[in-house]
Design goal:
NADPH-cytochrome p450 Reductase, Chain A, domain 3; alpha/beta; six-stranded antiparallel sheet; about 375 residues; about 20% strand; Rossmann fold; globular; Elongation Factor Tu (Ef-tu), domain 3; 15 helices; 3 domains; five-stranded parallel sheet
């Protein structure tokens, strides 16, 4: 039986120190991506979750980035600094490690460096960046850099630890869609994590939380602060309803939870899963599980789109269009339609495809199709978890 939320002493304001019990590579050798399956243990937390919820994770920054910042400041790391709303100072090393984001510099830090710079060349460069006509140049300059880059490029502008800290934003927790059902895994939470690594301005950069989970958390030993973020996103309460789930890449995570949940609960409604990524051989996340569900009749349809496996790129929205008549038949019969993943492009393309299918298959005008889709949303039959 799940524990009511109020019964747990742990929350976003007081996260639970979970132990990570598994960290396994999901993508195969040769993949352009690094995707990992992470399991967080909830035993003893009193926390409960449902399919569709997210797990909040509080990461720490990479020690080498913190050390370089301290070196550039000429600081030992023990210097006390005050953070906003704090009642007592903490050591600057702790602030830079676990409280503050080291990326996302703004115009404000450039202005501060400009007043502090002692070198004429540095002063001239900073003045050029701050000139009224240089707005776009400054934006492009800052997009390529983190705070450490600025301290390295303008070494004559000496900041105190407090002056640097005053420019940094809070390090926020990251939310990951949960990839497991409490009906199957009541005492643990599974995550599907795309590990972010890239380079700008000649430096290696990383996603703070994805590399925290992938590289810095020791399985079974590092307490990882987590909390459950409850969501309105979730499978239909009526198990007789059909579900159409579109989740390319790590967007597949909640649908692994949905299908586990529906199978464990004996739901009679059909499940239709759309999954897409680059290559079947290297990027078919949980592929064996999906094929087993299909073999056992627990997933009625599995449509995959591996964009790089053929000359013309194929995406999940293309598979939807290919199956337009059947998709419309499922919707007419009361199916729920879910999308999870990239908000910028994929979710928009899927939404456009859905409108087109409703219009063509339903013999509607664009306005009628838009009203139909609006009604689906109103009835909670069209739900999105996009980021």
């Amino acid at each position: 039986m799940s524990v009511p939320a109020a019964d747990s002493a742990f929350s976003k304001d007081r996260p639970f120190p979970s132990l990570i019990t598994e960290n396994r590579l999901l993508s195969r050798p040769g993949s352009a991506k690094e995707t990992r399956h992470i399991i967080a243990n909830l035993a003893g937390s009193g926390l409960h979750y449902k399919a569709g919820d997210s797990l909040g994770v509080f990461p720490t920054n990479r020690p080498q980035e913190v050390s370089e910042l301290l070196q550039r400041l000429g600081a030992t790391g023990d210097e006390p600094v005050m953070l906003p709303k704090a009642t007592a100072p903490i050591a600057v090393r702790e602030a830079l490690t676990s409280r503050l984001a080291l990326s996302g510099p703004t115009r404000k830090i450039v202005e501060t460096l400009s007043t502090k710079a002692a070198d004429a060349g540095e002063k001239a460069k900073l003045a050029g960046l701050l000139a009224p006509e240089s707005k776009e140049v400054l934006t492009a300059f800052l997009d390529e850099r983190e705070f450490v880059d600025l301290l390295a490029e303008f070494p004559s502008a000496r900041l105190t630890p407090q002056e640097l800290v005053d420019h940094l934003r809070r390090l926020m927790p990251r939310l990951y869609s949960i990839a497991s059902s409490p009906k199957v895994y009541p005492a643990e939470i599974h995550l599907t994590v795309a590990v972010v690594r890239y380079a700008t301005n000649g430096r290696d950069r990383v996603g703070v939380c994805s590399t925290f989970l992938a590289d810095r958390v020791q399985v079974g030993t590092t307490p990882t602060p987590v909390f459950v973020s409850h969501s309105h996103f979730g499978p239909p309460e009526d198990g007789a309803k059909d579900c159409i789930m579109v989740g390319p890449g790590t967007g597949i995570a909640p649908f692994r939870a949905f299908v586990q949940d529906r199978v464990a609960g004996g739901a009679k409604g059909r499940n239709w899963v759309f999954f897409g990524d680059q290559h079947r051989a290297t990027d078919f996340l949980y592929g064996e599980e999906w094929e087993q569900y299909v073999a056992q009749g627990q997933v009625a349809r599995l449509d995959t789109a591996f964009s790089r496996d053929q000359h013309l790129k194929i995406y999940v929205q293309d598979r939807m269009r290919e199956n337009a008549a059947e998709l419309w038949a499922w919707l007419k019969a009361g199916a729920y339609f879910y999308v999870c993943g990239d908000a910028k492009r994929m979710a928009k393309d899927v939404d456009t495809a859905l409108h087109d299918i409703v219009m063509q298959q339903g013999g509607m005008t664009p306005e009628q199709a838009a009203d139909y889709v609006k009604q689906l949303k109103k009835e909670k039959r069209y739900q999105r978890d996009v980021y």
